[in-house]
What we know:
The structure holds 2 protein chains of 2 kinds. Chain A is mostly helical. Chain A folds into 2 domains: about 1-50, no CATH class; about 65-95, no CATH class. Chain A has helices spanning about 10-20, 25-35, 40-60, 70-80, 85-95. In chain A, helix 1 (about 10-20) runs antiparallel to helix 2. The mean pLDDT of chain A is about 85. By secondary structure, chain B is an all-alpha fold. Chain B has a domain at about 10-145. Chain B has helices spanning about 15-25, 35-50, 75-80, 90-95, 100-125, 165-170, 180-185, 190-200, 220-235. The two termini of chain B are about 35 Å apart. The model of chain B has no long low-confidence stretch (mean pLDDT about 95). Chains A and B meet through helix 1, helix 2, helix 3 and helix 5 of A and helix 5, helix 8 and helix 9 of B.
Amino acid sequence: MDTEVEHADILLAYADAIYASDGEELEKTREQVRKRMGSGATIEAAATAANFSMLDRIANAVGIQIEPMAIGQTEDFREELGINDYVSAANTLRN
Amino acid sequence: MSQIYSDSAFAIRTDLAAVHNTTMESFSAPGTWFDATERREIVALSRRARAERGFQIQDYTDEVLDIDLPSGALKLIEMVSCEAEKIDKDFYLELVSNGLLAEQYVEIVGLVTRAVSVDTFCRSLGLSMCLLADARDGVPSKQLPDTSVIDHAWVPIIPAGPKGGAPAQALYGETDFVANIFSALSLVPDEASGVMQLGQTQYVEARDFQNFKFYRDENFSRAQLELVAARISALNNCFY
């Protein structure tokens, strides 16, 4: 996937490894991010992962509705990316 | 606990270490609907559930004491910890109809998700898990916001602005708009506040939400931040 974001390849690999159970892969991808982007960027990527691990669970656990303005803004790519098929889509669009 | 991350090979921001320190301390303090021993147990059970399902926690230590929790609490802890994407309104209604109070549901969600957040950060950087402090004395405050309503979630929330009255002012300040996610746990204001503190320190402060040039590290742009956020949300099957 071309995201047009610099270093997207290693950031996505790092995010995937954070959620996988392979400790060696996590260490490898973390080191790739650190070497290419620096320690500060690695910390911020970890903080971002930590934050959305929390917010995503909250949203799923209490059936939070998406803000009306965001429904229209995201309509064009939700279907394409399969986001409408998430179980939580039913909760979020209509509770 | 004040020395959190002091032995890390990474130079972690002091505000980030401080908010994680505050978060960890809150797990062993009396809450709104649970005492300190129960809150500590909820976090320990969440960690055990994740460890048993293969969500690795660096240097995992089982701190479960096997104390009694309300009916349904254990199931909720497991689901929020490991399968939150499968939770639906029927699940919530069943737990509440079987005796778990909506406010207890919210406090458990707050405790588990904040613990997941700190643990994910540690795992991401290869840091050992932060151990729980001993439970502190005290009783739950049992303060229910008198302006809470069912609005944009299954659980009651405090609406922003005049409808939310004094509880809204205390939690959100002088604003008529709060993102739905940040009011999600407002039935237990201390949990909502804890989430907001973590959110503003780990992600973006509210005043910079629309600032797409925002960065905390010059080598990690807002676009890169949102890319990681989107990937994590996809891995969590989170529509919101």
